[in-house]
Amino acid sequence: MTITITAFERSPDGGKGLARDTRVRWALEEAGLPYEVRLVSMRAMKEAAHLALHPFGQIPTYEEGDLALFETGAIVLHIAERRSGLLPVDANARARAITWMFAALNTVEPPILELVTVKFVEGDKPWKDERMPLVHDRVRARLAQLAARLGNNDWLDGDFFSAGDLLMVSVLLRARPSGLLDEFSGLAAYVARGEARPAYQRAFAAQLAINAAPLPTGRE
């Protein structure tokens, strides 16, 4: 059965790999699973056909036969459970990898997303200049904890790259524009190792190609 995912017709980040469909593309590339992409405009994301797949009107979604999924964590976990390579065989190591998936999305990402909220959503508010340093401090605190746990390891649980690392690297990439990631050399190197993986390179190139191509006539 053909796997189809949805992605932005035009990503807000211009194809820099920060949109969440990149995470799903990366997982599919790591698993060696072929897939197709259905591009969705901002308007179409709020229409009934897409809302039937994603009740919150976001991307990505994942369709395969009569299965339809949303939320990148759930999608990546589903992919990882289908093919070897993204989750360890050992039961305890597997459980730890899944724990890191949850940690990336539930513990590390929320303060990082606040950076975007303050800069773009609240950019014209009078409290922006006071709020941003507080958000920076919260992100630094979380990154410091993560850096201490990673230590000198290549990956979060030692030598095995897992779905936990895939999601964590994807989350940390969102902190790079702020300059905060570069304050932690170990984490910056960890992210660079993730970006160097051939599967990530293919996923990044695929998303960039979509955003580099001209929109269909009448959609400019």
Describe this structure in words.
Residues 90-215 form the GST C-terminal domain. Belongs to the GST superfamily. Keywords: Transferase. This protein is α+β, with helices and mostly antiparallel strands and 220 residues long. 54% of the residues lie in helices and 9% in strands. The protein is built from eight helices and four strands; from the N terminus they run βαβαββαααααα. Strands 2-1-3-4 form a four-stranded mixed β-sheet, with helices on one face. Helix 1 (21-31) packs antiparallel against helix 6, helix 4 (91-121) runs antiparallel to helix 5 (128-150) and helix 6 (163-173) crosses helix 7 (185-196). The two termini are 34 Å apart. The mean pLDDT is 92.
Return the string of H and E elements. Answer: EHEHEEHHHHHH
Tell me the overall shape.
globular
The strands making up the biggest β-sheet line up spatially as 2-1-3-4
Residue fraction in strands:
5-15%
How many strand units? 4
Q: Number of DSSP helices?
A: 8
Distance between the ends:
34 Å
Helicity, as a percent range: 40-55%
Largest sheet: number of strands, sense, barrel closure: 4 strands, mixed
Radius of gyration: 18 Å
Mean pLDDT across every amino acid position: 92
Structural class: alpha+beta
